[in-house]
């Protein structure tokens, strides 16, 4: 299994921006065949080190992650994240 975790820090931290990104991320559920698990979490601590939103996804293998990365449902979500967030951090690992 491959886990793909992304953390997002909003450029402009508003409820509207957080909702827009979280809804877009959650909207991928069930629309990308290789995406086996999707979880979106919002930070409640709001510390200086905190990121605002986290995405945790699971795939069967690296090929599934590659399929997800290039998928047309994922592409507008990437564009929205780039528009609303800076920085983002990513980790991909196999378990």
TrEMBL record:
InterPro entries according to UniProt: Dabb, Dimeric_a/b-barrel
Stress-response A/B barrel domain location: 2-93
PROSITE patterns xrefs: S_R_A_B_BARREL (PS51502)
Superkingdom of source: Bacteria
Pfam families assigned: Dabb
Protein name, per record: Stress responsive alpha-beta barrel domain protein
Species, as recorded: Nitrospina watsonii
